[in-house]
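<backbone_tokenisation>
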Amino acid sequence: MGDCWSRTAWTWNGKTFAKSEESSTGMCRGFAGGAWDLPTYVSQVIENDAKAQ
């Protein structure tokens, strides 16, 4: 039905992938898309404009 979703995002930090976001729609309630986007992990990703060496 598609009423329960979760997602995790990963960002390359120059050496490895680091978790940058995790969220879900919460409990399954029987309607498509879920009701909320509930973050369980958040971070601030700061872009570095320096060229890779």
Notes: Residues 10 and 19 are 4 Å apart (CA to CA). The chain has a mean pLDDT of 84. Strands lie at 6-12, 17-24, 38-42. The first strand starts at residue 6 and ends at 12.
